[in-house]
């Protein structure tokens, strides 16, 4: 039997003792690190004050030196490990703000000529979701991802009117605290481009269909709800629209019938076709040509035309026309029109033509379009001929129907406000954002086989299929054919019934304060109902100076779940020389920093440069005017509500006239939105 010698036993014993000592030392060092980590977290929590950064000198001074010796018992070490693990788990549940989608393409970190700004309503969406989550509104996923919104303590919002994106870019060095505190900053379309005030954009939100029905049951009629300021009719003037005048309404609102009854609907429709219209944000997200791009520097819609010089407001009885186009690839354009078909609701061909591109065709895409060189050989119809035909033939309240119609409108180089896209109103996959092919939907719902064979697509056949699908949905119900839709989230057209955000926040027991001059407060109050108990739906704090507004928001920072303060520099900036502008910008930087310093832990701060208060107008003969009888709900602070005077809408460059020689581009004048959540870090 093998036996160790005495000296071998001694050596083994020494090795065991040495190993035990090393293990204990490692355990002691680990305990010291854990203690140091815990003490650092305590010092952070102790020193951290609303708005103070984690690397503040005061925090660093109070942090304990990790080398501080302390021996822990096994039970103490176990408790400390659990304490730190629980704290780390809690910190992973903190709110986070991330840009995505439209927020990435509107980021101020990319070149101005490729940026695509978000809208002030997107900012409103963020504020409301931060305030009450899904109880108040859908998440702002179009442009950002706000995680753990229910853990936000409060939201502070400072609106700086008159300050533009060009000002920020040109004088960025004068905003060191703003740029240091806020890394997430996006360009925002200035409301002045579509004749709106920033307060109007922030105060009103569209009603969903379910909310319309609930209001109808509560009030008995939409007219009564308007009279009680439960709802307000508003329209964003992106397209020149002549709205119908309802002189019988108890308040001066220009609108189509507020809610269609069964008697108002076309035969076989069981709900208004306007429920299927795409909204502004949806059209922008899907890449539809929009008039406001003509004001910007992206050249996205250069040479495009409006389908009408003026539009009639859309209604449940507006006619529908299905449009489908076939395209080819030319030397300068990857999607050039070669054939078009327009179908009416009776499935009759209203217009059909082959089209000869001006540029040389390098790929006829015959497999898909069915177009060949021989077919186009004797064709003389041009894109301009097609545009003129559509402008002449289709009525001014026509609803255009099609499958992914954005592609067709770009090929036609035409912009139209009223669109139903079959790829969006049907969903067979159960996955949001995944579109079904027209041929697949025709097979499932219509029992028709289209786009078969090897001769390419027929636009007449495709247009008829799209029209049949829309009419089928109108006859079966809003949820028909959509596996993910609910009655609470339909697309809402931009001529909409809206409700004040304060009506909604009040009913959800959320407290809101608005700070600013009397003009701003009046604009918010004009669209807000007075609750039955007589208590205001929001707290209004009147100020007479910008400095006073900034001071007020810091005083009431933690008193309300949402606080909005307005300061207006538009007049001062218009009259200021360069030196005065620099002085004002430095002052704004201090204001923004002061507001941020009063955001509590897990609070969110939003700074908005609202852009110019006015934009250059087109020549007077191109102006579009509408009756100002709605001024009691939209512009009562600037005009007498009892007046019937006219107001001029902001007029976009006339796309139906030859474009002028382009000038050297420069950064445009829009707004900027800065967002940051004030959270602790491990």
UniProtKB/TrEMBL annotation:
Gene3D superfamilies in alphabetical order: Ribonuclease H-like superfamily/Ribonuclease H
Any GO molecular function: nucleic acid binding
Keywords: Exonuclease, Hydrolase, Nuclease, Nucleus
Record region (Disordered): 49-71, 615-671
Compositionally biased spans, kind Low complexity: 627-651
Record field: compositional bias (Basic and acidic residues): 57-71
Record keyword Zinc present: no
Domain Exonuclease: from-to ranges: 319-479
Signal peptide range: none
Localisation per UniProt entry: Nucleus
One GO cellular component term: nucleus
InterPro entries: REX1-like_exo, REXO1/3/4-like, Ribonucl_H, RNaseH-like_sf, RNaseH_sf
Residue runs in coiled coils: none
UniProt KW Nuclease keyword: yes
Family per record: Belongs to the REXO1/REXO3 family.
Protein name from the UniProt record: Putative RNA exonuclease NEF-sp
